[in-house]
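Example record

One chain of 398 residues, shown exactly as stored in the release files.
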Amino acid sequence: MWSKYRVQTISFEATRANGGVAGFRGDVAMRDESGKENMGLDRLARAVRSAQVVVPCSELAAAMDFFIKRLGFRLDAIFPADSPSTAIISGHGVTLRLEHAGGDIVAPTLRLLVDRSALPAVRELEAPGGIKIQFMEANPPIEVPEGKQEFVVTKPGGADAWGTGRADMQYRDLIPSRLGGRYIASHIRIPAGGPVPDYVHYHRVRFQMIFCKAGWVKVVYEDQGPPFVMRAGDCVLQPPEIRHQVLEASPGLEVVEIACPAVHETFADHDLPLPNDRFDTDRLFNGQRFVRHAPKDATWSPWRVTGFEERDTGIAAATNGLAGVSVVRSSGEHSGSITHSGEFLFLFVLSDELGLHSDEFGSHQLQQDESCVIPAGVKFELTAKPGLEMLAVALPPY
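Predicted structure tokens for this chain:
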């Protein structure tokens, strides 16, 4: 169980250099409920990496607008991308963590990000006035929920199916249940096109890919050379924490994005300009390689279901067998069965129509822009006519 400590005494000694104050040395006496002194300021200070003030707000967008436009703060991170509820902003020597909150608003909390191995005993302090000081891990491991297997069919829906997310992009949720928090799949669009109000950023994820469904988008990636244009049919693997930026889009741009875990942070990088000087297509980002796949570079081979063929994007090799991404098509009128024992199998219809049938979940016809998640261990019959093309994403590759 975590212990709670209170600051009892604080003493500082100013040190001087060239006639000015260069810094402070001092100590803080922290005592637990038994009165035993536990830790000095020197050790405590060495463990701190950065600080955030948690500020609850009833309307996140309005709060961001006020702090950024009127007070000169800048955006450092925002998440989740499809429906932001938390934003981290900084300015004037302070970092604020704006969190959407309903009901009564409570006093702010100062969060100090620390190396927990260097500061294992203390979790929370309470300052005068009731402000809480929280000590949180500076570099926590990515938390991937265990998740659950479900059969999911998602239809396009109406205008209310779309919401505004990060950088003014519009999002449609393709897996509303998020499979227990393990996966998110988003249909993203920029109807008007033009310059995108994006910034150099990165994501703390286990897996993330982008498939361009319609139009084009100009992007730039860390260590991958000058900006390039993704067109319909192109696909990229975004390895964990690779810096990148969306620059410009055509009117009617549409992409499909899949990531694990469902809720993950997007962090701004204010210090790295893109494109950067280094060019290294073999660089590993947390064990994964960047992939840029285009249809003109593809070869077609038989898919796992007879009568269908695929063009592999190379993502299976780049992730060392974590995930596989393919575009699948039918050249004739075909039917066959599919089953899997993995954690995730997602199909998104790009053109024409896909028939699905299982004894457990019945029969379904998926049209263009409709998608499904097939649960493990369930046998499905797939039927398609000439012209069917779909995106298939599987973890692990089948």
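Notes: Residues 60-70 form the longest helix (11 residues).
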